[in-house]
Write a structure and sequence with these properties.
The protein is of the alpha/beta class and 148 residues long. Helices cover 48% and strands 14% of the residues. Helix 5 crosses helix 6.
Length: 148
Amino acid sequence: MLKTSIYLDTTVISALFDKRTLERMGLTKQFWGEIDEYNVFISELVIDEIKGAPQPLQDAMLRKVENFMILPITDNVQKMANVYTENGIFPKKYSDDALHTALASVNQITVLLSWNFTHLVKLKTRRMVALVNTIHNYNPIEPKLSIR
């Protein structure tokens, strides 16, 4: 059976350790128990964001992602992220969210998994990304909290 490709943004990895949101932490741990069912991708951006976390959290998060495929931020990814911000999908202030989305889009990843309610998961963003991706000959991606 062909595995679904998923891109994890940093919020999913950090949720494994965030005791402030126990329900989110529990759901993320439940998902993590089934993670082998998917082709999992992260990016250089995710690694950079993890490296901004304090120790020992940083090391724990890096251990969780050590076997995932790491996508580079290429010129095409940067260009697509710029298209998202130029079209008002993401404010320039949140260019990293545009980069996460572009990383998934350019690399033809089916699902972008995130706990980012503000920008990545909301319906308006999903619709606008799908429209822009279609115009630029990329498949739509599905930003979501759950892949079930």
